[in-house]
Here is the input.
Amino acid sequence: MPLKNKINYHQDWLFWGLNYLEIADLGCKEIINYNSNDKIKILYIPIIFNIKHGFEILIKTLIFVSEKRCFNKTDKTHDQYELLKKIIEKINSIKLSSINKTIKKIVDNNEAGYSKEYLEGIEPYKDIMTLKKDMEMLFNTVRSYYSLSFIKSKIEREDLIFSDKKNTLFKYPSFEVNDEDQPLVSIKLDSIVKKIELSDIVEMQIQINKTITLFIRVFQILLEQQK
Here is the structure.
């Protein structure tokens, strides 16, 4: 596939992933505008799904751009955590002057047609530490959705349901996740959703918008390195 077509291919993947985050953003706005518990009950889980799936697509997109290739059969992993590590290592190895040149080009030209709201506040980095701080924030945000750590504080003992039909829960000191005999632990999602507050949604929306901006930056920086 010619490089020009490959660039269009990568941009298609980028916008496809951004669409999922924008849907999540719209869901947050709907909840905030109505300030309604009913809206939280309906939209909270779909918002999380869209964020997680959007992250997966976007991280794979960054891998494709970085490696100058398209999707193949080996790209079916959902381990976003490890994939993003590779990307951040590469970004941190690029000269700051080169990165800032790309950022200026994004803002001045916006050839890809990004929404203006995601370009607001984008400025060249003053120093390498500011760049690394942004990359750390991107990494931690993705990791929090990969592990669902942000929801753990909402889980209480009564929200967990254990099923141990084959008596394996206390048989060994640990068990493998892929073990067919593993005990099943399920969560009462409806109970957890009731504990979600408007402040949680506001924080989530802020994260979504910051992450969209960072994904655009990283994508363009990697893309520029291929020219």
Summary: Residues 3-154+196-225 form one domain. The chain has one domain: 3-154+196-225.
